[in-house]
């Protein structure tokens, strides 16, 4: 299997293939993992911004590769220029000159400043000051937690991976508490006096404490990605923090939305009558399929129109539409709204009072976790390794090999290519959507409470009819994505214009963009934006393989990130492609536990002496490496938890 680019779908496919015993080569022309799913330190993001603003063409490093093509073969050239990012604009709202000679703390000059690896160099230093959340995914079967070491494709600077502890899931109680050492404490002296003034120089100096995602997503607690992380045991490579609150923007104000039964009945913003109305409607949504008579007359109507027919006040309709179902007011049907509401409610209570989890150190950790699983089971990774072309046999029409930028010909049976690598000649019939993105660094939360450490999700409804709603995710420093006393805010919506045109009106509603002039009381209450970047990202999800002209049958195309809040699209795509290649294989089965591995007698002797000539066995350095023997059997006890 040859995978080109290390985005989330490609990384999942690579891990699944390696786990099923296939030989996998995973190459990426970039010098960081994740593609458009990556996370960056602040300096890394500045480099990424500069690179995408310049957009220089890359010339062939080696023209001799054309001599490798035989007479009965033809080539499909791949794109050498990434066109998935457009309209990149960044703004500093502080004194940029003050940071002219400031260096990033802990920076290693000889190493690249790209990718989630930038978080690695300061992880131990960060842990001294910011204790991360201990929220972890429960494993299917309880195991002794072990730290994984060995082959690690996730970083250029070493970091001790967060240890994953296993907890049994209970339908009646939360597996873990939402509180952290910082959560639930009294407001600090600084917050009582207002936010501290953060300078641009401080942001640059503390740049390695930022892990800024290119794509902003959350994990549904009962979504496909969480199920896959648990099933494959990849969850041991990451830690997660529960999203602590759901917010709504109504009548010019941000307010918290009650989600769980306890939240509803403890809410002071709802009357007793509204509480009963809301609980009755949410109970109906949980098993709406059993009561088709309630909604079948409105199947051709929008969900917003259906809500108006129910006994719900305007404020309840707003909460359900924008903060619970989180669907479009004009485009989403009644069934789509009911399905989204049911999914939201089913995810409540598994890990906390909201349906969502966020990975510590950013969304960019997730592709790297699957890359690591692939590497543990023998996958080979090459960054800064571009591919010139696909080599196709004229008679069979199948792809036989790729040729890299060194002029090397690499043969494989199957090829996984990310959409951005395909040239315009292949994509003539493809119509792409766009995503508008903005990332802000702010000095305080959009809704201040006694607790500073909040992970919030807010949906801002559109002002004009036909425009999309904007999803806002606000991250605090305990997510390990920003420095202390700052917040990282992600804004996302389907594009109608450039990202700045789509999102700046929402930014102006929620934040103060004028850091110097503070004359109006309303502006004083708003969080200040310290730095911002806007960009448009290509959304290639939903493009059928038949839309690509002249693509061989054994070449599979993965899409980049979509505009949805969850990751279901990437997981579905990865599983579909895997089963097209290997219909009889299980998708990402769990690796065996070390204590369950039974070695053949001829393997025991060399292992006891500390040496092994068997390519199937691995050094005794990690849980996963011990479990990767191809000739081993797994024994599980019936009474094993």
Automatic annotation (TrEMBL):
It is found in: Cytoplasm, Cytosol. One of its GO terms (molecular function) is transferase activity. GO terms for cellular component: cytosol; nucleus; Rab-protein geranylgeranyltransferase complex. GO terms for biological process: intracellular protein transport; small GTPase-mediated signal transduction; vesicle-mediated transport. Residues 110-195, 586-641 are annotated as: Disordered. Keywords: Cytoplasm, GTPase activation, Transferase. Pfam families: GDI, RAE1_2_domI_C. Residues 151-193 have a biased composition (Polar residues). Gene3D superfamilies: FAD/NAD(P)-binding domain, Guanine Nucleotide Dissociation Inhibitor, domain 1, Guanine Nucleotide Dissociation Inhibitor, domain 2. This is Rab proteins geranylgeranyltransferase component A 2. It comes from Nestor notabilis. The lineage of its organism: Eukaryota, Metazoa, Chordata, Craniata, Vertebrata.
